[in-house]
Amino acid sequence: MTVADLMRKEVVTTSPETPVNEVATAMRDENVGSAVVVEDNIPAGLVTDRDITVRVAADQLDPAAMPAENIMTEDPVTVDVDTGVFELCSRMCEEGVRRMPVVDDGELAGIITLDDLTVLLTGELRNLAGVIEAESPPY
């Protein structure tokens, strides 16, 4: 199974110049915790709900006057669509990230999050538990 099988293809994107309040509104409307900042469909940064809280709200800055590029994580860690799930898990742990833009030939193709992986792995563990239960003697 590869990242392409799991990624979300619908991604909230924004430009570096977009005011933070507009980014926050888009994230709220789509019920997501991040927006990928793109330039020519290439990921240039990532804005998370935490970035907005820590870098704007906590300092009581005006989100309408603050462009996304001022708070984004630049050059976000990305993953290729052909990357396997176990390699993805390793990379997320190594890089200490919860979400990764997915790229195909360098261009944004989707996003994958720790939540997505948790749902997948939990489902797989349930399936394995079902096999074990079916083959185990009754207690």
TrEMBL record:
Amino-acid biosynthesis in keyword set: no
Domain CBS intervals: 7-63, 72-128
PANTHER family recorded: CBS DOMAIN-CONTAINING PROTEIN (PTHR43080:SF2), CBS DOMAIN-CONTAINING PROTEIN CBSX3, MITOCHONDRIAL (PTHR43080)
Domain of life: Archaea
UniProt-listed CDD domains: CBS_pair_bact_arch
Keywords of this entry: CBS domain
Organism: Haloplanus rubicundus
Listed name of the protein: CBS domain-containing protein
